Amino acid sequence: MQRLFFLLIIGMLTSISTMGQYTFKGSIDPQQWGETVYLSIIDDYRKSSSIYTDQIFLKTNTDSIGNFHFTGNELEPANRIYRIHVDNCNDTVQWKNHFYGYCKESKSFTFIANNSDTITLPMSFDNEIFCTIETSNPKTSVFSRIDSIREEMKFAYGELQSEASRKMNDKKWFKTFQDFGMKLNEPLAELYIYSFLSDRTSPQYAFYLEDLKNSTYYDDLLQRLNKSYPNTIYSSQYASELASDKYMISSGRSTFTWPKILFTLLFTISFIGNIFLIVKLRRITSKQAPVTPLTQQEQKIAQLICQDKSNKEIADELFVSVSTVKSHINNIYKKLNVQSRDELKFFQSKN
């Protein structure tokens, strides 16, 4: 009986030890990027090239020399798209800076992983981060490889900007990316490629619709997705977009209406944004002076912000850490009733 109980315990421990557990670790420069590192899951593949606050599900702080570490067993057993990123955005306004997925003061690494993967991102030469990748999953770095080819594509399009050159490049690069994606044998990588080749705001969108009429590639990709990732948001989103684009083609709607629609949409957003900014600035000017004056250090930081200094440059000039600068900026915003650097500059110019 004791032996049976002992074997049962051993079996349970073995079962637990074989359960998936991921480890994502690496190093950053805390003086340049602060101490917080974020981990995001990307369900919408069209948001895989940018940083969105609503994708973040974990964050951690580095140790004193910049090492960070994520570990656990809550990820999916199958491959999914994830991102690790750092930024110099103030927590108070981070959601604003990332609302459209763009943050100029950030570094990110988008990758494919599952619950049993180990990924290491050591600091590389010149303190560059997220450039060197050590991983147990051969699919982890496929997005980085795609991005390298994408840079070649951008250069090719920019080298000669004639209509004839654009048509030749469209045909060449669509085939290049589709062939490369299939060789990777990873449908999520093909989705990443599809997301920018079929972007309705890109110059290649008209060629994509023509390609969709004649090529079986897109239906084949749907089959590969359903086979590798059945009943996932990746498959359902792609199937929905593909059906929508095919319907638009079959209904005979002109592809050239999209630039007009885009222009109208951007004009409307710009107009509303300008009205909102004017109203907001008027409210700022009508506010009373802050009850609590800025400290001497806060006044220095406010002046440096008005000189368009970054958090890192301010930290270097005042001999403090980036985290300390962020804390001071947060206090400045609260005391002056502003929410961004632009509002602070406007406030300073009126006082």
Automatic annotation (TrEMBL):
Coiled-coil features, chain-numbered ranges: none
Matching CDD domains: LuxR_C_like
Residues annotated as domain HTH luxR-type: 287-351
Domain of life: Bacteria
Pfam families: GerE
InterPro entries named among the record's database cross-references: Sig_transdc_resp-reg_C-effctor, Tscrpt_reg_LuxR_C, WH-like_DNA-bd_sf
GO biological process, one term: regulation of DNA-templated transcription
Membrane-crossing segments per the record: 261-279
Any GO molecular function: DNA binding
UniProt keywords, alphabetically: DNA-binding, Membrane, Transcription, Transcription regulation, Transmembrane, Transmembrane helix
Name of the protein this chain belongs to: LuxR family transcriptional regulator
Protein source organism: Imtechella halotolerans K1
